[in-house]
Known about the structure:
The protein is of the alpha+beta class and 340 residues long.
Amino acid sequence: GGFSGLIEFGDDALLALCTDGVGSKLMLAAEMRAYEGVGMDCVAMNVNDLLCVGAEPLAFVDYVATPRPDPEVHASLGRSLRRACDAARVTLCGGETATLPDMVKELDMSGTALGWVRRGDQLDGRRVEPGRDVLVGIPSSGTHSNGYSLVRKVLEVAGVSLTESSPFEADEHRSFVRAGGPIVRNPSMDQENLLTIGEVFLNPTHIYVDPIVSLLDAAREGQPGAPCSYSDIKGMFHITGGGLTNLLRLRKDLGFRIREPLPVPPEMVWLQSKGKITNAEMYRTFNMGMGFAILLSAESANATTQWLASRIPGTRIVGETDSSGRVTVESLGIEYGEYA
């Protein structure tokens, strides 16, 4: 199904609602006592889903369940949520913390986000033209918040500590949240203060509200410099759990041929090697470098891709649509026929 639910709200508007959590990534955060990024994960997993139906995020509420109160941890979560809500342009309008020692053994965190879209502007696949529309991939910030049961298993089998220095270099376009809170850019250049493996895998999910909402507004209103019209935007996809199979959530008869996948982050290459994981399983579990994708008309694809790439470097056209109802990556021998 779709990424968010839609509710009729008056004659001209629809409310969009979704809920999600951080998942077992929190187990790594607990092991490192590093919660600076998980509030951003929680917000991102929700607001990015709202974008997929064309909605502008408005508000967010969080829910934390914990076995015991920990003021230091809760303060870190609060700071992370504040940064995330600022980045997502939403109001943090409440939340709940429950102390449940008889029910909960480790801290869990989830949230719910509210957005809105004008009636008739929702992106539900109706305007898609299989065989003509083009898929544009937007880079991820890392593993985001999915696949962490597999991440933890590979780390365990490989006998790797989260506090070890990362054996792979972070790419130059990404920023990382360090244990303790500071955000660093180009950390691979700092040989005296290398990221740890734990810090790499705890890097928070990218929040795509900026520039996606700006693109939607500019296209809808016909603003000067808009790279496309609103009718050129056919669909959006948050590449979360299920990997590339998320592309199959828009329409059952819609297929995709991925001809030029985005570069795979080095930590995912390392995971695949250490875990001896097949391409099919990796691309069905992780975002593999593409955290978000947009479906555009062929006529607008080049200009819109350039507009997006100027805001999120590395954005580019990765493939096109067909009517197969399947996702195919011929260069990797991968094919999926249903959403995982």
